[in-house]
Specification:
Number of helices: 2
Main location: plastid
Distance between the termini: 17 Å
Structural class: alpha+beta
CATH class: Alpha Beta
Largest sheet: 4 strands, mixed
Order of helices and strands: EEEHEH
CATH topology: Nucleotidyltransferase, domain 5
Subcellular location: Plastid, Chloroplast
GO cellular component, one term: ribonucleoprotein complex
Number of domains: 1
Organism: Dermonema virens
Keywords: Chloroplast, Plastid, Ribonucleoprotein, Ribosomal protein, RNA-binding, rRNA-binding
Oligomer: single chain
C-alpha cells in the first residue's frame, strides 16, 4: 500500500497483522499514539476440536474479528479505518474483516 493511513479519535485505525501461525488486530488512535484495543489468535489456543473445520485458521480469524468488534462497541467506537498493511485482502484477513462488519463496525 502506498497510501499512509492514520486513525483519529473519531475514527481509529484497525490494524491487522498476519504471521504464518497467528493473526493480530489492534485498534489504534494515531493522533494520541495510543493502542485502544488489542486481540490476537493466541487467546484461542485451546479451541475444541469439534469446532474446528478444515479452514481452522479462518475460523479463528472470525473469532478474533468478533471479539475486537465487541470491544469496540463497549468503548463506543462504531467506525474504523481498516489497515491491512501490505497483505492481500484474502483468506484470514478477509474473514476477520467480514466478521467485524457483521458485528456492526463500519469501515
Amino acid at each position: 500500500m502506498k497510501k499512509k493511513l492514520r486513525g483519529t479519535t473519531d475514527r481509529p485505525r484497525l490494524y491487522v497483522f498476519k504471521s504464518n501461525q497467528h493473526i493480530y488486530a489492534q485498534v489504534i488512535d494515531d493522533s494520541k499514539s495510543q493502542i485502544l484495543i488489542a486481540q490476537s489468535s493466541l487467546s484461542y489456543r485451546n479451541v475444541n476440536s469439534d469446532q474446528i473445520t478444515s479452514c481452522s485458521t479462518c475460523y479463528i480469524s472470525e473469532l478474533v474479528g468478533k471479539l475486537i468488534a465487541k470491544e469496540c462497541q463497549k468503548k463506543g467506537i462504531k467506525k474504523v479505518i481498516f489497515d491491512r498493511g501490505n497483505k492481500l485482502y484474502h483468506g484470514r484477513i478477509k474473514a476477520l474483516a467480514e466478521s467485524t462488519r457483521e458485528e456492526g463496525i463500519l469501515f
